[in-house]
Amino acid sequence: MSEASDPEQTRRRRDRDPDRKGPSAWDSALRLLGVRARSRQEMRDRLTRKGFEPDVVDEVMARLEQHNLLDDEEFASEWVRSRHLNSGKGRLALRHELRTKGVDESVISEALADIDPDDEREIASGLVARKLTPSVVDRIGDDRAERDKAMRRLVGMLVRRGYSQSLAFEVVGEALSALRSG
Question: Where are the alpha helices (DSSP H) in the chain?
Fold first, then answer.
């Protein structure tokens, strides 16, 4: 097949500015997807930032969607699952992260609905348990001031990770009560 009649060669030429050095927009998009899944908005922003013309970015976005390589619903679901289980992030942090990646609010809500409240509580409890090292437990003892300080610090840690304040207080309260009785 001659280069003139090869549609892939034609597409590559269109993707590439004749004066541009480096990979085409399509190659850049595939390379980005090779690292991790991306939201539509995230991919559009990255390609634009790399200096590709808006019409080239639009064409690459259409090709990616045609090949089912961009799917915000799948991206959000996988992001929530991964970040919740591996990083211990709570719903609020995950919602914020997905918003910054340009995912639609309805898609975010659907992905967050997959988080089981019992799993969320269990992960939060695990985070608290890791912070309650023997030295911390010894320091707290029966001292009310140390107990209050530990409560504030542990609740703050969970809230910064995106857990609701009410869940954080419940989990930390249970952990500190278990220390006192156990």
Answer: 7-15, 25-35, 40-49, 54-66, 72-87, 91-100, 105-112, 117-131, 134-140, 144-160, 165-181
Question: What is the pLDDT of the chain when averaged over all its residues?
Answer: 88
CATH number for region 72-112? 1.10.10
- 80 Cβ partners below 8 Å, 6+ apart? 94, 98, 111, 112, 114, 115
Q: Report the alpha-carbon distance of residue 40 to residue 43 in Å, rounded.
A: 5
Q: How far apart are CA 111 and CA 63, in angstroms?
A: 25
CATH of 3-66, one of 1.10.10, 3.30.460, 1.10.150, 2.40.160: 1.10.10
- Asked whether 123 and 117 are in contact (CB, 8 A), the reply is no
One-letter-per-residue 3-state SS of 143-162: CHHHHHHHHHHHHHHHHHCC
Query: What per-residue string of b and e applies to 124-152 under the rule 16 or more CB within 10 Å gives b?
Result: bbebbeeebeeeeeeebeeeeeebeebbe
Q: What is the pTM of this model?
A: 0.79
Do 126 and 88 form a contact (C-beta atoms < 8 A)? yes
DSSP code of 163?
-
pLDDT at 16 over 60: no
**Distance (Å, rounded) from C-alpha 42 to C-alpha 40?**
5
